[in-house]
């Protein structure tokens, strides 16, 4: 069924959301809900369809052309199509790299635009923000080296007022710039504070996962920058905000994953022995068989890190 559906997509325009959105969702589902052997074949089928990839390129570009909805939590049909497009491209990046599949047509994105979508948000719906962060995670994991993706708008120009050390750090982190990274981290922190008020579990998990991937990427590129980002004092305030004095708050998956992140990069000014003991105490008192899967997984990662 992949052949006719992918061919149908290639004949559509981005405005044909009523056809494209369920079709792209079907392609996304076909990549994820199948056996590894069939998955490799599915990736090859989709990557060999030049018309489909050209359509996906147009869909991604519409992210910056279409006006965002006035309500951040409202998802229009156009927004839903954009979500499906970014998620499908993120999956294609992941599996093309895994199976080293042949690429017949590349996709290009402006890195500054994509980062600014997270840094400034600009009333983008929450699900679209999650989809873009999934795409960025896939790009970071591949060290911006995917044969499927061409990164444009790379920040090579350095301000005349920048110090030599900042220039050297930017060179090591290229195509990211140090200032972009700091802006990104602040935006992710603010999103987590906002999420705490809105109780949006999907976005909180996406933000924490993106923060994990970002720090892993930085550690690979420049350990000093990674440790500096992980030990920012603002993280301590963020942690207090997330805990918010509620009982058993340490057992929330986003809190556990943040704690694991701080432990991994030895941010002793953020997480203390007192918090570690509190988590161990709550874990000892919990009925582990009744924990949600996300919490159980996060607790396992935390305990392994300890």
From TrEMBL:
BP-aspect Gene Ontology terms: meiosis I
Origin: domain of life: Eukaryota
The protein's name: MEI1 protein
